[in-house]
Design a protein that fits this description.
Blueprint: E1 4-10, E2 14-20, E3 26-33, E4 45-46, H1 48-65, E5 72-79, E6 85-88, E7 98-99, H2 107-115, H3 119-126, H4 135-145, H5 149-154, E8 158-161, H6 163-171, E9 178-180, H7 181-184, E10 190-191, E11 196-197, H8 199-205, E12 214-216, E13 219-224, H9 227-230, E14 235-241, H10 242-249, E15 258-262, E16 266-273, E17 284-291, E18 294-303, H11 307-316, H12 323-331, E19 340-342, E20 360-362, H13 370-398, E21 408-411, H14 418-428, E22 432-435, H15 440-452, E23 468-472, H16 478-501
Helix pairs in contact: 1-6, 10-15, 11-13, 12-13, 13-14
This protein binds adenosine-5'-diphosphate and SN-glycerol-3-phosphate.
Amino acid sequence: MGGHILVIDQGTTSTRAIVFDERAQPVASAQLEFPQIYPHPGWIEHDPEDLWKTTLATAREAVAKSGGPQTIAGIGIANQRETTVVWERNTGKPIYNAIVWQDRRTADRCAELARDGCAPVVRERAGLVLDPYFSATKIAWILDNVPGSRERAARGDLAFGTVDTFLLWRLTGGAAHATDATNASRTSLLDIRTGSWDDTLIELFDAPRSLLPEVRDTAGRFGETLSEHFGAVLPIYAMAGDQQSALVGQDCLSPGMAKATYGTGGFILLNTGATPIRSQHGLLTTIAYQWDGVRHYALEGSIFSAGATVQWLRDGLGIIASAAEAGAMAAVSDPEQEVYLVPAFAGLGAPHWRADARCSVMGLTRGATRKELARAALESVGFQTDDLLAVMIEDFEASGATRTESVVRVDGGMVASDWTMQFLADIVGAPVDRPKNRETTALGAAFLAGWRAGLYPGPGELAAYWGLDRRFTPAMSGAMRERRRAGWRAAVEATLHRRELRP
Ligand SMILES: Nc1ncnc2c1ncn2[C@@H]1O[C@H](COP(=O)(O)OP(=O)(O)O)[C@@H](O)[C@H]1O
Ligand SMILES: O=P(O)(O)OC[C@H](O)CO
């Protein structure tokens, strides 16, 4: 058996494959982007064949670079969550494109279910809000819009999967139709309390049970690849939603520990331990991981626009040439000017859940320049995180638990910005830890697969593999923090209110 682990990190805009060695250090990688398909405003699709082809191509490249298939002890998969694929069981061919998590086409259906009073049952069982974000209404949409598919589903001819399941099916040549508990907990069809598909939710969303994969532990033997894919049969030992995988990769395995991942969007997860906690503030309750049949839970808050706001400065406004320039500009901006940018480009996520809100910039004076705008863009990530963490901690402590550690561990492309990380520490008023290995999403899946392959010790020993690059310590005065928070709150309220005034 080889001493390497291959991780497939199938994300929203690109697919990455990374090979980790015996010490869980990355030794080879490959990455490919694929097209985003926008058939209508608010609709976002991926061609599942693109997801598969980029997976196979990057995985083959990384395996070749790291010494060949005989060095690989097993595979871990971390994936974009909620994105929905339905395919034919006999051919493995999708009957429609993958409907991506960001897709809003089922907003009306969700509103209808909310009017029918379904939100409490969804929150109680699935731990989620009624929103097009999750898979269930996407499945029903495909079945209602691809002619004949409801009948085919009833006959048992079709299969559903989130991206992990689809890739597993393809890797194993259709031998395995399974998902893990973290991915299943994002469909809105799972009772997260029992870890099983729930008949009430299945009926409510009209997504037939015949389509659904088997739900398994996050770490375990999911199946073996066909030898034609890599020139050897390789076992698949772990699958996890990418945000949950990052929670593991950050070694946030104790209740009270939190991680924030900043890519295009931002995802903050707080480990809450073995009991699911219901948020009083619109946060999601989700399965953090499951092994040996035991589930652990997290509270999750999503920021729709984090790095995307920086991309807008670059591509939409053209006021910076590269993402890295935003921090340099913010550093030399005028501290006397308090400009607020509320990045509701695609609405606001938790804790507001206002799909109709739109972006606003407030506090501009004649003296404002692109420097102050760049600062406001970077600060918006800190403010949004602060809002989410505050309510998360409140929910956590309302359950009787105490958060002993205030640190937030960060990862994702945007944490390259020292300026943004320092502001984050300042505004949340807590240390922000950036690890040496920023590929935390892949690292989580690697840890789990390596553990099951007998290469790494169990999850309790992960600390030895996590190294600190830099701790950002709060330096802002308490008075200034409160002033800035009040300014941000006023800007958010004005943004939400403005929308209400529209017809
Ligand atoms: N130095 C930086 N300062 C601010 N934002 C950055 C910086 N470097 C990258 N980003 C932002 O991070 C995002 C890319 O992060 P990544 O984790 O690769 O995202 P994703 O996986 O969502 O594609 C981009 O939106 C980019 O604008
Ligand atoms: O692909 P990412 O990294 O943008 O993550 C997407 C999330 O899993 C969506 O819930």
